[in-house]
Known about the structure:
- By secondary structure, the chain is α/β, with parallel strands linked by helices.
- Helices cover 46% and strands 20% of the residues.
- The chain contains 6 helices and 5 strands, in the order H-E-H-E-H-H-H-E-E-E-H.
- It has a 5-stranded mixed sheet with strand order 2-1-3-4-5, sandwiched between helices.
- The chain is globular and about 45 Å long.
Amino acid sequence: MNELEIxxxxxxxxxxxxxxxxxxxxxxxxxxxAQSVTAIAGSSGWFERGFVTYSNAAKxxxxxxxxxxxxxxxxxxxxxxxxxxxxxxxxxxxxxxxAITGIAGPGGGTPEKPVGTVCFAWAGKEGACIAQTCHFVGxxxxxxxxxxxxxxxxxxxxxDAAISVA
Length: 166
């Protein structure tokens, strides 16, 4: 079992204990988070569905991301990640959502948003939504793997925080 699967298994244990479900909205990771999660036997008991929304049109059509958000902030932004996570919740039966959107490279970066820029959002059905931007280093596969790791760790932190305040 690789590190991402170990993190996914831990997350699944937490979700099962709570009787809750996860959904994912992925862009630059292209379904890698969903693959890591579904590599875990029994994940059908806590992973509700995943959305791979690589294009802007897919973000609009599948998750309800407003075109104005994409125009104002770009696809790689915390604003877009937030709406992606909220859209994934709205279009699923899940209790928790994660969204990942970024520039994995090797091209596509700008001085403002260089290659390795990845925006995340974690949202709970209760309304809380946290967004964060990270800058990862390495080639395309390394950026994507770091993004999946960060997304899984962020989800676990959200669950741990929700347990501590409950």
